[in-house]
Amino acid sequence: xxxxxxxxxxxxxxLLGVIPVGLFVAxxxxxxxxxxxxxxxxxxxxxxxxxxxxxxxxxxxxIYLPLMFHGFYGVYIAFTAKNNVQRYGTxxxxxxxxxxxxxxFLVIFIAWHVYETRIQKALGAExxxxxxxxxxxxxxxxxxxxxxxxxxxxxxxxxxxxFAVTWGIAQSPRSQTIVTYITIVAFLVLxxxxxxxxLAFVV
Length: 203
Hints:
The protein is mainly α.
C-alpha cells in the first residue's frame, strides 16, 4: 500500500470512528440506559429505534458499513503498529497501545453482540428487555458485556483525542492537554451510562 493511500485510509478510518460510528455508540448507550427506568421504558425506546422509516437502509449505510470498515482497517492498523511502551512508557504511548488492544477486542465483542441481537431478530426473536435480561443472567456474559462497554467507551473517548490531533483541531500541547481532560470526562460519563444500563437488566 502506498503512503498516500494509507494516509487517506487512516483519515477516513479516523473520521468514521467519530461520525457516524462514535455518535451511534453514544446514542446506543443512551437508548440502553432507558432500562434503568424499567422494562416498559426500555422496550418503548428500543421499539422506536427499531421501527424508524427505512431502518434497514439506515442501519447498513450509517452503522454496519462504516463500522465494518473502521473495525477491519483498525485491526490492520493494530497489527502493523509499532508499540514501544517498554522503551517509552509515557501516558500517550500507553493510550496508543490500549486503543489498539480495545479495538481488536471490540471486533470480537461487537460481532457476538450483533449475533445475539440483530441476527436473532432476523431469525424471529424479539429484541427486548427480556432478551437482554436472559443474556446477562449469565455472570460470564455480564462480565463480557461490561468489558465490552468499557472497551467501547475508552476506544471512543481516546479516539476523539486522536481525531482532534489528526484533523488539526488540537495542535498545541496546551490544546491537546485540554482535549485529554475532555475525553477523560467523556469516558467516565459514557461508562457510567453503559454499565448502569447493563446492571438494570440484572438487579
